[in-house]
Specification:
single chain, alpha/beta, TIM Barrel, 8-stranded parallel β-barrel, two-stranded antiparallel sheet, globular, iron, metal ion binding, ThiH/NoCL/HydG-like, metal-binding, iron-sulfur
Length: 465
């Protein structure tokens, strides 16, 4: 099944839909925005209408609607995590990536389990509780066992400040049996990006290795979900092809997963091409995405799939990241390194990293900035640990009940960070935000928040509901 063409990505339908809605009248745009406020998602034609917006007034209405939907569902929470690159070895030839097999300009490195443990210790001592484990698509002599061993190592590290509470994974596509083994290690989300859904472009930027097989990659989430992994993440590398096409193709992928498994992706990532060592294409994107179009992408995705988390990485500058919080972003990485060993060595833009960073700030500075804007940094992992994933999560999210858990848990995990890790200025800013946020809550959410925060103040860590 998984070597046959993925007919759910229908390129002709995408082009026809874009053509038929490229010059939508303002009244039609407002009709779609009104539909979006119902928070039941949008269809392909609706999304096509929004991609055609260029008028400043209508852009403003799009952005305001995205903010309204984001605040209704997520409130002022922002989940934080750190990527952990364990290897930059790769057998693929992706022309936009520094890890590609023939690139001689980087030093190859696959971390030993001991080195991985030291990296994890650094992250824990910074305050991180969620780690996204990333590896190039080739492994040392142990093969896939290297991945399984690395997950176990990450979970095994304990310090006086605690441990990693959830490991998410971004690695090469697996067979169904391998996905079952991955699930057995207790991962959270399995994340994989198609990079581009446009088949001809995919072929021109993936010149060798197993990744050249478009169908093997695009069917990977089917295999993962058949193996029992119900939290999956997707994404596009914007800049490789027309962003309008990519958004609609991603929507076709989402609809396919919802149809087959009853639930779509848990997260969507929105990386833009950034310079990478040894890649001319990465510095000169074939289809560059302007800042205004990038903000538009985030806003459209928030309205199209309102209950799906949108991830913003440190590829983007601090300024751009701030601007997208109000447009739909609900998860961010912070203090990131994209080269294996980068945390222990304290390297930022190491040429052996996968791409250049736009936001170099350490975790505490990011948290202080986020809190000063009124957003609550969250390190919560409760849903994973209580089984609120996949369809169970959506059953709580769609009627709005998930906020009764997420808002209190965000505050308690933030309070834990402030007590154990934060700098004095961050402590002051954070405590003021916690008090203000609780004062604005009511009902059971407020009762839970007050109870959990008091437990943390009394010396308890890792409390959640």
């Amino acid at each position: 099944m998984y070597n046959v063409p993925a007919n759910f990505i229908n390129e002709q339908k995408i082009w026809d839909t874009l053509k038929n809605h490229q010059k939508a009248e303002n009244a039609q745009v407002r009709e779609v925005l009104s539909k979006a406020r119902e928070m039941k998602g949008l269809n392909l034609a609706d999304v096509a209408v929004l991609t055609g917006i260029s008028d400043p007034e209508m852009l403003g209405e799009l952005f305001n609607t995205a903010n309204e939907v984001k605040e209704t569902i997520y409130g002022k929470r922002l989940v934080l995590f750190a990527p952990l690159y364990i290897s930059n070895m790769c057998s693929n030839e992706c022309v936009y990536c520094a890890f590609r097999a023939t690139n001689k300009d980087i030093v190859r490195n696959a971390l030993s389990q001991e080195h991985i443990a030291r990296e994890v210790e650094v992250l824990i001592n910074q305050g991180h509780k969620r780690i996204l484990m990333v590896a190039g698509e080739s492994y040392p002599n142990q093969g896939f066992q290297y991945i399984l061993d690395s997950i176990r190592t990450i979970y095994s590290v304990k310090t006086q400040h605690g441990e990693t509470r959830r490991v998410n994974v971004n690695i090469a596509p697996l067979s169904t049996e391998e996905f079952k083994l991955l699930k057995s290690e207790g991962i959270g989300t399995y994340q994989i990006f198609q990079e581009t859904y446009h088949r001809e472009t995919y072929k021109t930027v993936h010149l060798g290795g197993k990744k050249r097989d478009y169908n093997w990659r695009v069917w990977s989430l089917h295999r993962a979900m058949e193996a029992g992994i119900d939290d999956v993440g997707i994404g596009v590398l914007f800049g490789l092809f027309d962003y309008r096409f990519e958004i609609l193709a991603m929507m076709q992928h989402i609809f396919e997963l919802e149809d087959k498994f009853g639930v779509g992706p848990h997260t969507i990532s929105v990386p833009r091409l950034e310079p990478a060592t040894g890649s001319d294409l990465a510095s000169h994107p074939p289809f560059p995405v302007s800042d205004i179009d990038f903000r538009k992408i985030v806003a459209i995705l928030r309205l199209a799939v309102p209950y799906t988390g949108i991830i913003m990485s440190t590829r983007e500058t601090a300024k751009m990241r701030r601007e997208t919080f109000a447009l739909g972003v609900s998860q961010i990485s912070a203090g990131s390194r994209t080269n294996p060993g980068g945390y222990e060595e304290e390297t930022e833009d190491d040429p052996s990293g996968q791409f250049s960073l736009g936001d170099h700030r350490p975790l505490d500075e990011v948290i202080r900035d986020v809190a000063s804007m009124g957003y609550v940094p969250s390190f919560c992992t409760a849903c994973y640990r209580l089984g609120r994933t996949g369809r169970d999560f959506m059953d709580l999210a769609k009627p709005g009940d998930i906020k009764l858990h997420c808002a209190p848990n965000a505050l308690s995990s933030f309070k834990e960070y402030l007590q154990n890790y934060a700098q004095p200025e961050t402590v002051k800013t954070g405590n003021e935000l916690i008090q203000k946020t609780i004062a604005e809550m009511d009902g059971i959410a407020r009762q839970r928040a007050e109870k959990l925060v008091k437990r943390v103040e009394a010396g308890r860590d890792d409390v959640y509901c």
